[in-house]
Amino acid sequence: MKRVLSAGRSAYMKLNLLWKVAVVEISILIWFLTLLRAVEFKNYYTPFVLSFVLMNSIMLLFLVFRKLYRSEQSALKKLLYDLINLSYSFTLSFSLSEVILRITYFHSRRLDVNDAFWLLTVFLSISIASYLSALKEKLRRLSLEKELQNLNMDLLRTKLNPHFVFNTFNFLAEAVRKNPDRAEEFTIMVSDYYRSVLKFKRQWSIDEELAFIEQYVLIQKEMMSSLTFDYAINIEDSAKKRIVPSGITQPVVENAIKYGIKGNSGGKLEINVCEQEDTLEIIIKNTGTPKREIIPENFGTGLSIVLKQLELIGGKIFAKTDGNSTCVSLLIPLSKGSELNV
């Protein structure tokens, strides 16, 4: 289902791009025919240059300048900036079209002061806008990295959940009396888990994430030995080195065990990781369903932190129940290589 949705989103993006290109090209054609009529169809070259250069220049400049305010939250301000941007882009594009026409059609080898002024204005406008947008993007990334780091610390605190610590100690105390060998193995498992917790960083590979999750699942499986508890973790080879926020799947797995497997008196937990074009998809499916609907309003501390982490990097979380099973999907956008798109 998620693969179909991912393919649908990709197709939508392509159609959206084709639609924009089609609008520009149709505008060029209309402008070209209008200018042809104005010159009574005696000169085809001038209308073509003016329409082609003008419309494409407007689109290019508009998109370059739009980067400066694309993160603006207010719709009214965005509209106002768009109108100013469009007017400025049109003015520059019209002047640029005249210069190109003068050079190509009238073979003018001399550019007057006015031509030099507009060419310099276009060059400086693009350079300044590109520099400012790159600087703004860098500051945005630094801010997001800092916020992600803070969320990671919050997530780390949830891993040191006192209830979980008490439960492991109580289980260990009982195991020491009944089965010392089992108690020794369990102590090593818990020790390895908390060693991984203390190694938390801002992000790590999905391979490291799932190794950490497996440690947690094994501890829970041991403490729930009276129940039938099976698990499976599958990951595509191409996705193993992809980068994710550390511990982002743990709250989801914790809920799957607590409200799914345990609430159902046993069952199976399955984690699948695959890569869909520019998105990493982590699917966590478990037997059993929670008593409350899985929506942001009902999220606890752990899931709320996961939601914030995903929102910061442009990701999403989906949840659905089907019969006696629950499926939660985390969609994490990827950029070049294995870096997060932050």
From TrEMBL:
UniProt organism field: Fervidobacterium changbaicum
TM ranges: 21-39, 45-65, 86-105, 117-135
Residue span, Signal transduction histidine kinase internal region domain: 152-222
Annotated coiled-coil segments of the chain: 132-161
SUPFAM superfamilies assigned to the protein according to its UniProt record, in alphabetical order: ATPase domain of HSP90 chaperone/DNA topoisomerase II/histidine kinase
InterPro entries linked: Bact_2-comp_sensor_kinase (IPR050640), HATPase_C_sf (IPR036890), Sig_transdc_His_kin_internal (IPR010559)
Keyword terms, alphabetized: Coiled coil, Membrane, Transmembrane, Transmembrane helix
Lineage of the species this protein comes from: Bacteria, Thermotogati, Thermotogota, Thermotogae, Thermotogales
Pfam families: His_kinase
Record's protein name: Signal transduction histidine kinase internal region domain-containing protein
